[in-house]
Amino acid sequence: MRLLVTGANGMLGHDVVRVAEDMRHQVIALGHEDLDVTDPARVERMITRERPGTVINCAAWTNVDGAEESEQEASLVNAQGAGFVADAAAKVYAKVIYPSTDYVFNGEGGPYGESHDPDPINAYGRTKLAGERATALVNGQSFIVRTSWLFGPRGGNFVETMLRLGHGGGPVVVVHDQVGCPTYTGHLAVGLLRLVDSAAYGIHHMAGEGSCSWYDFAMEIFRQAEVVTRVMASTTDMMERPAKRPANSVLISRRSAPIMLPPWQRGLSDYLARRDAADAEDAPRTQRSSASKRQPVLGWTRREREERQADGEEITGESELPLEKVTWEDGSPGGTDEGADAA
Questions:
Q1: Contact (Cβ atoms closer than 8 angstroms) between residue 236 and residue 175
Q2: Is 297 exposed, middle or buried (0-12, 13-18, 19+ CB in 10 A)?
C-alpha cells in the first residue's frame, strides 16, 4: 500500500517508516521540514498530490512539561494539526492512524481499556485527547492508537537516560509510584502497520505487554545492560515537575481481536540488541576484547562492595531515574522533543 507518514524523523515515525519499507509498502516519509501539519493548505496539497491509501500521523508535540506553559502551541500540533491531517486524508478516501497516549487518563482507575472515559490531568493529555476527537470527527476511517512510555533509537528516551546516569557512577534516583507499560517503538510500528489492511476503526490500546513502575523499568534496564550502579527509589511528591503524571496509566485492550505487542522486557532486549549492533557498526573494525563490552562502571573492590552492602545499600545491575530528568510519555529527556517530529 501507499503510505504517507508525518513526523517521519521522530522516534516513532522513524521506526514506522523502517518497518513499512521492510514490509514492502510504498512510503512517503515526511519530516517537519517537509510538512508542517499546522498548515492546513499545505497539508491538503501534499496529501492530495500523493494520494496515499493510509496516513500515519506521527507528528506530535511530546514535551509534557513544556505543554504546561505552551498549551496553545502544543494544541496546534496535537489537536488542530491532527484534524488537518485527518480531514485531508478523508478527502482522498485514505485511512488515518493517530498515535495517542496513556496520559488521556487521570491514573486513578487503571488499568484502562478502550471504553474507559478519558480525564487528562495535564496539558499534554488534553491536547492529545483533543487530537483523538478531531481525527475521529472528520475521518470515518480512523484508528486512534493509545500507547505509553515509548523508547526507541531516535532522540532521547528513558533507557538512554538511565544508561547515561548509570555509567556516570550514580546514585540513580527513580520514582516507584507511577505504573505504566514501557513500549518499544519497533514493536509498536509493527502493530500500527497491522491496522493498514484492517477495518477495525476506532480506539485501540497498544502497548508493551505487562506493566511496571519507572523503578522496575530502570532495574530491568541495568540488569539487561549489565551496568552496576547505586539505586535509590523516590516518590512523585518528592520530584517537582510542572505537569502532573497519572499514578497508574496501564493500558489494556478489551477488543475481541486486539493487536498484542510483545512483553515490555522483550522490547527492551530488542532495543538494546539493536543499539549494540549500531555501536558495532560505528566502531573500528579492529577486534575488541569482551572486556570492552558493558563493563560495570563502579569497579569497587570486594571489600568496598561488602562494606556498602553491609550498610544497606542495594548494589545491582539496575537503578532509578530522577523524575525531573525525563519526559515520561515519550521517553525523551525533558524539553528536547518540542517539535512536530517528536512522536
A1: yes
A2: middle
Whose CA is closest to 153, among 105, 191, 188, 106? Answer: 188
Residue 337: pLDDT above 60?
no
pLDDT band at 166 (very low <50, low <70, confident <90, very high): very high
What's the chain's Rg over C-alpha atoms? Answer: 20
Which amino acid appears at position 315 of this protein? I
Query: What is the identity of the amino acid at 25?
Result: H
Q: Rounded to an integer, what is the distance from CA 299 to the centroid of its chain? A: 33
55 Cβ contact list (under 8 Å, min separation 6):
3, 4, 5, 6, 47, 85, 86, 88, 89, 94, 95, 96, 97
Single-letter code of the amino acid located at 257: A
| pLDDT tens-digit readout, 78-116 | 999 999 999 999 999 999 999 999 999 999 999 999 999
Q: What residue segments make up the domains of the chain, in order of their start?
A: 2-155+183-210+249-262
Q: Which of these is catalytic: 98, 103, 112, 124? A: 124
Distance between CA atoms of 32 and 55, rounded to whole angstroms?
Answer: 15
Q: Give the tens place of pLDDT for each residue, 255-265.
A: 999 999 999 99
DSSP for 139-166, written as a single string: -SSEEEEEE-SEE-SSS--HHHHHHHHH
Report, at the CATH architecture level, how domain 2-155+183-210+249-262 is classified: 3-Layer(aba) Sandwich (3.40)
Catalytic-residue membership of 124:
yes
Of the candidates 124, 142, 123, the residue with the CA atom closest to the CA atom of residue 134: 142
Q: Are 151 and 185 in contact (CB under 8 A)?
A: yes
